[in-house]
Design brief:
The complex is a heterodimer of chains A (about 260) and B (about 280).
Chain A (H helix, E strand, L loop, with lengths): L1 H32 L10 H12 L2 H34 L1 H14 L8 H8 L3 H26 L2 H9 L4 H39 L4 H11 L2 H29 L4 H7 L1
Chain B lengths: L4 H4 L18 H23 L10 H15 L1 H32 L1 H16 L5 H9 L3 H25 L3 H9 L4 H37 L6 H10 L3 H29 L1 H12 L1
Helix pairs in contact in B: 3-4, 3-11, 4-5, 4-7, 4-9, 6-7, 7-9, 9-10, 9-11, 10-11
Classes of the chains: A mainly alpha (about 260), B mainly alpha (about 280).
């Protein structure tokens, strides 16, 4: 009885998931040898072969680390820019109103729009990619930081002031912790976005990394390698997502909103 | 574990507290600031770039002239309209498939177990990276663009719909059983409205993804479309044309999102009203 329950709750979804993946591979193989055999779709074996071959190449690992590293550097820079500016704007009512219209305009514009300008000025370089990541990620982090600072209970800041805390101390010990759930959420959403922008910068702007490899595979007509690269990008994307969720949960375990979820 | 919070960036809502601000700023100052700063920024751009000799940064006047010459109305029918038509077609497909499949996956457990790992894997692939696959498979035409847009934009809506329906309040489900609602009634009158806020959050992300993929699908080697024109202008050093393209894409990105906001506010008026009422008590 117990084991049957357990099977129902944990193993069965996994078993179904495995069946689903195998089914997808079967359909893919069938398409590749059957209806779509003349097209660029490689067989499963060809794609996996290309993947295995790629995993043995030094250049591939270099590209992967360049992509991951560039995305992380860009994300780190975005966090610094976004949080610093966000606190500055969030604590000053005048600045908040002055920037609201501009931020409101910039928020829905994706970084790919600015890509031609950045590529023009900086060329197909890692710096170009980093600038593009900052453009894409700093603004959402900034906007969330402003919202978080605004959300801090005024009673808390007043209390801190009446205890004789200075401005810097209030910022560091009251405002920043109070705004941290907003900031953390923004960072969790921005981490996979940073990876996406890095790949886009490589694919469309020629910045070094996996995006560029994908573009080269496309122009060379090497479709097996293209599919292998897509699989790698999917895995990398999942790693970024899982890592950012884990970091958020760990960094905010003390916060009341997270404690509630666990209870 | 995936929730819509992943894609909607809405942090955990803390209860509203009454705000006390010692310094009150008169509302005309707020308005002046909100309107004044962008105006000032544009004026600064205009004057600073007025006699710019830097090839990368032409004068704003020049950019606006090219903007007017290119987009109003020289390339309007040949490039702007097809781009937007692809966007609309791809997004519409994504919305239908996303909401429909989301419903199926939320309500039929074995199907969800079967497909969930695949969905989470595919949605982790940067959406633009799928464009080369469709180019080699379908070519550079509009079919490829709509397919790329639709596929990439499906996932945010799909996942949001799935989460929205799965988190429908148990009491609501019980009540609809008690009232002996038919399946169709349950779907359209209970599940859909209850999940609507989350579905719309997903649709909004889908729209943004669709816009990005629209541009990317045009930048990767196509000859027509706003993105193609903009990138070609950059590669052939027609800098003012490139700036005009960037300007148009930026304005479009903003306007499309605003239109969506308006539609959302209208359809979800009951929901925002209920939230407002809750907050007031």
């Amino acid at each position: 009885m117990m084991t049957a329950q357990r099977w129902r709750h944990s193993a069965r979804p996994t078993a179904y998931g495995v069946i689903g993946v195998l089914g997808l591979l079967l359909v893919w193989q069938w398409l590749a040898v059957g209806p779509l055999s003349g097209t660029s779709l490689p067989t499963v074996a060809e794609a996996i072969g290309a993947l295995v071959q790629m995993l043995g190449e030094g250049g591939f690992w270099e590209d992967t680390s360049v992509t991951a590293g560039t995305a992380l550097i860009g994300l780190a820079a975005s966090i610094v820019v976004g949080v610093v500016l966000g606190i500055l704007i969030g604590t000053s009512q005048l600045l908040r109103f002055a920037t609201s219209a501009v931020l409101e305009f910039l928020k829905p514009i994706p970084p790919i729009v600015i890509l031609p300008i950045v590529v023009l000025v900086l060329g197909p370089t890692t710096e170009m990619t980093i600038v593009l990541v900052i453009i894409g990620c700093a603004i959402p982090i900034l906007i969330q930081t402003v919202a978080g600072v605004f959300d801090v209970d005024p009673v808390r800041t007043d209390t801190a002031r009446s205890y004789g805390m200075g401005r810097a101390e209030i910022l560091g010990r009251v405002v920043l912790p109070g705004a941290s759930p907003f900031i953390a959420t923004a960072i969790r959403v921005s981490a996979p976005a940073a990876l996406v922008v890095t790949v886009v910068a490589g694919l469309l702007g020629g910045g070094p990394g996996l995006g560029q490899s994908l573009y080269q595979a496309q122009t060379a007509g090497d479709s097996a390698r293209m599919y292998a690269l897509i699989i790698v990008l999917g895995v990398l994307g999942m790693v970024f997502q899982a890592a950012s969720q884990l970091v958020e949960a760990k960094a905010l375990h003390w916060h009341e909103s997270k404690r509630e979820v666990q209870a | 574990m995936t929730t819509t919070a992943d894609i909607t960036a809405t942090p955990v809502a803390t209860p509203r507290r009454p705000r006390r601000r010692s310094r009150r700023i008169p509302s005309w100052v707020k308005w002046a600031l909100a309107v004044g700063t962008p105006t000032l920024l544009l004026a600064a751009w205009w004057t600073a770039s007025a006699d710019s000799s830097n090839t990368f940064f032409p004068s704003l006047e020049q950019i606006l002239t090219r903007f007017q010459q290119l987009w109003l109305f020289d390339h309007f029918l040949t490039d702007v309209v097809p781009s937007l038509a692809n966007l609309a077609g791809g997004f519409a497909l994504a919305a239908i498939v996303g909401v429909g499949l989301g419903f199926v996956l939320a309500l039929i457990r074995p199907v969800r177990w079967l497909l969930e790992p695949i969905i989470h894997f595919v949605r982790s692939i940067p959406p633009v990276a799928l464009v080369p696959i469709f180019i080699t498979m379908i070519g550079f035409g509009n079919d490829m663009r709509i397919t790329s847009i639709a596929l990439a934009a499906t996932f945010p809506t799909l996942i949001a719909t799935m989460d929205g329906i799965r988190s429908v309040d148990g009491t609501l489900k019980d009540v609809s059983v008690v009232y002996r609602l038919t399946r169709a009634e349950k779907f359209t009158q209970v599940y859909l409205p209850a999940a609507a806020p989350q579905i719309f959050a997903g649709l909004q992300v889908s729209l943004q993804v669709a816009f990005i993929v629209m541009i990317a699908s045009e930048m990767l080697g196509a000859a027509t479309g706003i993105g193609a024109l903009t990138l070609t202008a950059q590669q052939s050093f027609m800098i003012a044309d490139m700036w005009a393209g960037v300007l148009l894409l930026g304005v479009l990105g903003f306007v499309i999102n605003k239109i969506f906001d308006l539609v959302k506010a209208r359809i979800l008026a009951w929901y925002f009203g209920a939230k407002e009422a809750q907050r007031a008590t």
